[in-house]
Amino acid sequence: MAKTSCEIILCFFFFILSFRVISVSAQQTCDNAAGSFKPNSTYDNNRRLLLSTFASNVTAQNGYFNGSFGLGTDGVYAMGMCAPGAEPDVCSNCIKNTAEGLLQICLNQTDGFSWSGEETICLVRYSNKSFSGLLGLEPSNDFFNVNEIRKEDQKEFDSVFDDLMIRTIQGASSSVRNNSNSLSLSGKYYAKDVAPEPVYGNISVVMQCTPDVSSKDCNLCLERSLDFYKKWYNGKRGTIILRPSCFFRWELYTFFDSRISGGTIAAIVVVVVVTIILIVVGLVICKRRKQKQEIELPTESVQFDLKTIEAATGNFSEHNKLGAGGFGEVYKGMLLNGTEIAVKRLSKTSGQGEIEFKNEVVVVAKLQHINLVRLLGFSLQGEEKLLVYEFVPNKSLDYFLLVYPNKRNQLDWTVRRNIIGGITRGILYLHQDSRLKIIHRDLKASNILLDADMNPKIADFGMARIFGVDQTVANTARVVGTFGYMSPEYVTHGQFSMKSDVYSFGVLILEIISGKKNSSFYQMDGLVNNLVTYVWKLWENKTMHELIDPFIKEDCKSDEVIRYVHIGLLCVQENPADRPTMSTIHQVLTTSSITLPVPQPPGFFFRNGPGSNPSSQGMVPGQSSSKSFTSSVDEATITQVNPPSNVSARGGFYNASIGQGPDRLYASGTCIQGSEPELCSACIDSAFIRVIKKCHNQTEALDWSSFNEEYPCMIRYSNRSFFGLLEMTPFFKNYNATDFQVNLTEFYQKWEALMLGVIADAISSPNPKFYGAGTGKIGIQTVYAFVLCSKDISPWNCSRCLRGNVDNYKLSCSGKPRGHSFSPSCYMRWDLYQFYGFIEYRASPTLPREKDGGKISTRNILGITVALAFFITVLLVLGYALSRRRKAYQEFATERRSMTTYGTAPPDDDDITTSGSLQFDFKAIEAATNNFQKSNKLGHGGFGEVFKAKCS
């Protein structure tokens, strides 16, 4: 924190000018949840008739029209409006295009809306229910600029941004018409503004609400949009959020015709004030950092000497090594008193290690529970960071249940039930009963240790987070944990809560009862499922008994076990609000009379999409990776999958599996969505033949290729299931050896902006294409870029994979004008010519040029310099005075407490105090102790004697 603050001061005057423009043109939102109608029905005809007249009606009503057509269930309600000040013909065209877009996109949805336009914004909304006067917050649609505000600039940027947003929301939600030239209601609830930002130029914002809602509802709608940006896109360089009742947009460029209020001097004053605040704050933090170089660790923990731990572990002997984790290794040791310990040695090369070390010590030292592993102490010397835990002899639940399946017979139903109960009590303690509210974030079988009596102990708190008493949800940009155990909202949005741990606990219950690993894959009904979705299928088919581990079937009550599975399914429901709390789980586990609710489908449950028709051979949806192993693969088996025809027949993406047990084969093929079937089939066929010829006995192979340099595709096979997995290794690259003959800084900046824009195009909502293409100018050259992902991974993972390729390029190929790189899950290519002729390459927005500011005279410069010096002097003097006052107040408070303790404090209404009120006259003390008589002596210590005294 301190280091970052110091860097803010040093880097403050370096401006960043690159960003990607986002547009509002024709963003239709169809409300699938509201209902649907049959095409060519009476409702459909009424909808078309009403919307077809909207352009003229809105224009005739000075930019706002609200009407309906039809009766009863066939009635259609609609609204249309333009931004105030729009020319009639511009407004008419905007409304017409927007209405036509809604009719084309929302084919059978009873509700839909669309905000459209760039310089002139308009709205068209329709529904089968009257919505006039009602606040509509959902459904919403959002877009963001992929570039981000630099972390060192974020604090200063937020200061200007927050003030602008508050001011604009207040202006927009005012009931007064915000455009003096507008006579219609469209001028109501509209505001636009610009604020100068020292690093990024200007922040421009436009907000508008529909005039039918109240001022209070308009304010709420815009505040919700601002909160949404803060929660999900904070730090991005532009956002558009569209709701039925309001429009919210801000950019780092002026996208409307507006002038900044105030002149150059006003802008400089803002810069100066904000700069001074940052300087003062930075200096204070830097000073504190110097005074506090050591890591703060709780005094409740014992600090071990490094030599003691080295002796206990045999100098970290391999013989004593118990295992390794994400941040280091674990060793068994024995102290001189005979106490067995487990020592977690954090890796010296781990950049994350120090964070996790502090976190684990701070968290675990405050926890004491029979079902949590106990921290005995730590050691922090030089680069060594060591955590000393109690030794738990029976290793982990993972060891018995999943790593060595033949050891599952040691876990009968009684033991497994006890383990589930112990884990429940441990998590409940973390969430509710401890002094802190703690979210573990990495609950999994390998982090459940078993003591000599097979009692569970939750371990590894490196990822844990402490929550406030009233805090329920938090967000992180750094998703950590183990896939398979992480909840859907955490994986996709970085949002975690107590319900995230509940999800992980549900996965653990299912693993404990089945003896199966969640990340493994299980075929059922022609589809491949992970454990959670497999159990859900069993639940739907009422065949839950098939899940029970054969090792416990004979010694358990089937109804009791199925009740535990039922609880597990409740824990892994997709919506966090539907999942029970740990206190509820503890109640239903200990009280069999409580009736359980019916579970909803779990997170990551893959529902069949249009056109999915699994064959009797088990053709299934999937993903990608590539390694080589020397083992035989039957070529006939690979041929049976028949990738060329299957990929082209299924819209450019196909996965399949065939065979059983160790002979099972998984394969997938990817083409560009919507491309010509002949091109796709030819490319896949070419890659298929090449793989068969080159990979004679490898169990895994991968080929990203181009057919005659005109068409990209991918084919892959393996003896393991890679479906639904993000795999970024191995990474391959090929590039032109010559360097781009332009300024490398310019190339680096513009090339990255181009690639990030293309990636954003590939994953843009609501229907990601998983491919993108774009072009941009770098110097005098035009660069073309293309990206493609395997369609079975999520848009989030597609972005991660492609960004990983971008980062790898920057490390090893920076400045190369052409090349391509790929990993199992994604492909990226760039060149100086249009290499795929059938794809439309979107022009990347040009980087904004700095505007020439008006020249400031020498007198103005001198005045600004004097003002700056004055402000700094005043602030430093005020800071010093406040510091002295605070110190004096602390001394007074200490004195006051002492006076109160000894009954010498003046009355509360007595304003007279003296700094020497604790200083007694020596003669008074002599009199009170009778000149230190022996009879008044109470005792003596190392520094003197103590006498009893009586004050008169």
Q: Which characteristics define this entry?
A:
transmembrane; single chain; 6-stranded mixed beta sheet; disordered N terminus; nucleotide-binding; Killer Toxin P4, Chain A; 24 helices; 952 residues; alpha+beta; Phosphorylase Kinase, domain 1; Transferase(Phosphotransferase), domain 1; glycoprotein
Number of domains: 6
CATH superfamily of the largest domain: Gnk2 domain, C-X8-C-X2-C motif
Which fold name corresponds to the CATH topology of the largest domain? Killer Toxin P4, Chain A
- The name of the CATH architecture of the largest domain is 2-Layer Sandwich
Number of helices: 24
Rg, Cα atoms, Å: 34 Å
DSSP strand count: 36
Mean pLDDT, rounded to whole units? 75
Strand content bin: 15-25%
Membrane topology: Single-pass membrane protein
Signal peptide: 1-26
GO cellular component, one term: membrane
Keywords: ATP-binding, Glycoprotein, Kinase, Membrane, Nucleotide-binding, Phosphoprotein, Receptor, Repeat, Serine/threonine-protein kinase, Signal, Transferase, Transmembrane, Transmembrane helix
Q: Can you walk me through this structure?
A:
By secondary structure, the chain is an alpha+beta fold. 36% of the residues lie in helices and 20% in strands. The protein is built from 24 helices and 36 strands. The two termini are 56 Å apart. The strands form ten sheets. It has a six-stranded mixed beta sheet, sandwiched between helices. Strands 29-32-33-31-30-34 form a six-stranded mixed beta sheet, covered by helices on one side. GO terms for molecular function: ATP binding; protein serine/threonine kinase activity. Residues 316-589 form the Protein kinase domain. Keywords: ATP-binding, Glycoprotein, Kinase, Membrane, Nucleotide-binding, Phosphoprotein, Receptor, Repeat, Serine/threonine-protein kinase, Signal, Transferase, Transmembrane, Transmembrane helix. It is found in: Membrane.
